[in-house]
Every structure is written in C-alpha cells, then in structure tokens.
Amino acid sequence: MVPFAYAAAGAPEAAIARASRAEGIDYIAGGTDMLQLLQEGVRMPRELIDINRLSLRGIDETSDGLRIGALTHMAELADDARVKARFPLVSEALLASASPQVRNMATIGGNLLQRTRCLYFRDVATPCNKRIPGSGCPALDGQNRMNAVLGGSDHCIAAYPGDLAVALVALDASVEVLGPQGQQTIQVEQLHRLPGATPEVETVLRPGDLITAIIIPATPAAQHSHYLKVRDRTSFDFALASAAVALDIPSGTVREARVAVGGVAAKPWRLREVERALAGKPLSADLIAAAVAHAGADATPRPGNAFKVELMRRTVERALQVAGGVA
Amino acid sequence: MPEWTRRDFLTSTAIGSGVAALARGATPSTPDADTGMLNVDRQFDITLVVNGAPRQLHVDARTTLLDALRDRLHLTGTKKGCALGQCGACTVLLDGRRVYSCLTLAVMQQGKSITTIEGLAHGHGLHPVQSAFIEHDGFQCGYCTPGQIMSAVGLIHEGRTGSDDEIREHMSGNICRCGAYASIVAAIKDAAAHGA
C-alpha cells in the first residue's frame, strides 16, 4: 500500500472540516471494503480519518419508522427484534450479505457506499473509466458476467453489488448527511448516480460529506416483504440478481407493491412498472407472472450477462410469490 | 551454530529497513480534547490486549491487525489466506466477536481485546471446540483450521447452531480448500451440544 496518514476523529465537525478542504482524504469505518481497495491499490488516499469513535450508533423506533445510526454494524441491525418484526426485508437483505465476520465489522453507512465488484475496476493492471476517467471500459466487450444490464452507459457498465441499498430503495428510505454546509436528507434512491459519461462520480455526496443515519419510514407493505438473492454460491457471494419486494395486501388485494432489484443495474433499481401492474388487483401467481413479464424490456445486455434479464424477472416473480404467500 | 530460519531472515530485514524510518509516533487515542484537532500521523504507539495480555507495538498506519499479530507479535497461528477478507483463515475474536483480522488496521484497534487461536486453550487443556475438531477429523492440511475454530467459537457464542443448515450458512465465511466441511459441521455440532 502507498503510505498514508491516519487520525481518529472524536467529533464530526473536525473530521468534516478536514476531509472537505483537501483532496485524497477518505473516511474509514468498518473498513471491510476500504482494506480490499487499499490492498489492491484501487484507492490510494493520502490520509484516512477513522470515524468509529463518533456517536452514530444505535437503532431508534420513531413515531413513523426507524432511525438507525450509520455506524451501526450490519449484524446488529440484522438481528434486532424490532427490525425483524417490522421490516423483515431489511434483516433478510443484511443476512444475505457477505459473511458473519464481515457483518460484525461492517457499518450500514459504509455498506451503502461499497464499490462495484467489476473485475476491471478492482484490477489496477486494466483500464477502467471509473478508476481512471478516459482510460476505457474493457467490460463492454470483455468479461461482463457480473456487470449491469440496466442503467449502464458506453463508458461504464459496472453493477451496484450491495443488498441493503436495494431493500432501502424498496422501502423509500433516506439517509441523513452531515457536510460542511450543515445537514441534509437524501433519498437512498437518489444517493447513487448513473455512470453516464462520468462513471468516476458514484454518489451525490460531496467531499467531506458524512452519512450519519438511515431513516426507514413505516409502511404497511413492510409486513409482507422478502429479499431473494440469486448467486453462484449459496452464501458469501454477490448477487447475479436480487429482488427486494414489499406488499401491502389487505385481504389479498394489492393496495401497494414495492419492487427493487440488485446485481443487475448500475444502482439499486426500482421496477415501478411491475408495481403498477400489481396495484389494485387480487394477488395471484398469474398476476405476478404477468406483472414481471416485461420487466427489464429496456435492458441493454452484453453477451456475458444477457441471462440476467430473464433471471431478474424470475427472481422478482419468486420473491413476490414468497412475500404474498402464493405458490 | 544457532539455527537461522527463513522467518528470522525476513524479520531481521524488516527491522533493519524500518529502524532508520521509525520515529516515535503519537498514541492514536482521543484527539486533542481542547481544540478538537485530529492527531494525524503515519506511525503510532499502540497497545493491543492479545489473549489477555497488553502488548505494546509501534506500527505504521498501514499495518493490518493480521500482520501485527503474525509479524510483530509472532502469533502465527492466525493465517493469511487471501488478505482480502474472502477466505476466513485470518478470523480472530475482537471484543468477543468474530472478525477478519486482514480487513482492519492495527491502529484502529487501539486498546481492544483480541483472542487468537493461541489464546483459546487454558493451561494444558484444549478448548472444547479444538477437541471436537480433533475427534471429528475436522481438518486435512490444517491451514484454514485456526480460522475455522475461531469462527466456530464465535458462531456458538452467537447461538447459531440450531441445525446443520444454520451451521453451514453461518460458517460460510470460512473456506476449506481441502473440503473438510462435513467433518467441520460435525465437530461444531458436537461442541455446541456439549456446552462449548
């Protein structure tokens, strides 16, 4: 690793002031993705600011949902009884992520910001427009099995690999962010940017911005929710395709449906056309099959990942069947 | 003539090249309380409580906890299988929770308690999980084994041993290239059943 300086922050203001005023300064929390990026030379910060001593942990039930400190470990959130009871989708998404050791170390704020697993991004011996703007995208005509079929561009088809963000997008969650200019709230669905012509800009966060909390609004749909992750291995592997679904179905009729997919797109992807096809109708296997039939019709598959379009449809279909209790 | 091992050679060259560069660093504890300024440095004096004993080290910011344990404290039971948090051979207990020691920096663990495979047994007696691994032949080459055992201790403490499927799912962070998985599951089941 290239040498870097390190400091542990005792208060957010000092960390934000320092990180926002100079280049090459990164925050480190759980460190489970950062250490990989450092070891592989993908990230070469001048300085790391350790934010683990900030008081940003804990799960609070509010009048209209949950407020979770960004430094809360994935394992703690996944195992919380209130989360399992009221937002099973979130617990399932977290338990489908990584491994127990990673979940004991990784924070939910850091998890949202994890970088793509595109093998060209992670291999500094290869060109990559995300890592080095203008160097090219070898994935377009190369090994692109793990890459995106939705939301990519001619500059970048990297897929967003995380699970928690997909569940949060389905639940209309938001993040609280503290920056040099103060606090703002950003919908998780707006947090990540499409690559377009600037794949190196992954989020709307500015230098020094610090995610302090995740807010999940209460919704009846969370009661019948499910996260289904399809991958090469049964565990400890990233998604080829995943589906986060939530259904508000009083007496078997869909009042509201939420559907988001992961592993197939440049950012967590809401399938609103599927949601609209389900709304207002009695839930059945046939309804679900019809609703997903045209999902991803706007996909731009590459030869190595074309299978993901059909896989995504079937993953959403199965997840809806499970969440809705129809076989 | 005293034996000069390969490990001795590697350690001596590391020390030799490091001495000129080392300076007394600042302890990475709380930043200056008066001004809230960050204590930024490249090298630090830290204390890690390893297997019950406080150990003082002078480390570069880049030193992983794994390298601190192996190369600096000579606790080589914890293995480096991948250095990327994908194999589990580096699993230790950090304040009682199982973690990958390759995915964190030593400076980030200032003052924390770490248990390695060397710290499991008490006196001459093996830890029940260690005994179970021997009884059920839960290893072949043995390279993943310290990580498997530390992870299993964590798993049992987490209460994740209700079924074979649960054990397999929650031991998924430990890879065994020799394929001793069936015996590992049997060993864990046995140890858990006997109050490990």
Count every beta strand of chain B, where a strand is a DSSP E run of 2 or more residues: 5
Q: In percent, how helical is the residue content of chain B?
A: 25-40%
Annotation field: number of helices of chain A: 12
User: What order do the strands of the largest sheet of chain A run in, or round the barrel if closed?
Assistant: 4-5-8-6-7
- What is the helix content of chain A? 25-40%
On the 0 to 100 scale, the average pLDDT of chain B is: 89
- End-to-end C-alpha gap of chain B: 46 Å
Structural class designation of chain A: alpha+beta
**Cα distance, first to last residue of chain A?**
52 Å
* Class from helix and strand fractions of chain B: alpha+beta
Spans where pLDDT lies below 50 across 5 or more residues of chain B: 15-24, 30-34
Form type of chain B: globular
Biggest contact: A-B, 39 and 45 residues
N to C succession of SSEs of chain B:
HEEHEEEHHHH
The strands making up the biggest β-sheet of chain B line up spatially as 2-1-5-3-4
How would you describe the oligomerization state of the chains in this entry?
heterodimer
Question: Tally of extended strands of chain A?
Answer: 12
> Major sheet of chain A: size, sense and barrel closure?
5 strands, antiparallel
The value of Rg of chain B in angstroms is 19 Å
Overall description:
The complex is a heterodimer of chains A (327) and B (196). By secondary structure, chain A is α+β, with helices and mostly antiparallel strands. Chain A has twelve helices and twelve strands. The longest helix of chain A is centred in the C-terminal third of the chain and has 18 residues. The relative contact order of chain A is 0.13. Chain B is 33% helix and 14% strand. In chain B, a hairpin with a 2-residue loop joins strand 1 and strand 2. The radius of gyration of chain B is 19 Å and the shape is globular. At the A-B interface, strand 1, helix 1, helix 2, strand 3 and helix 6 of A face strand 4, helix 4 and helix 5 of B.
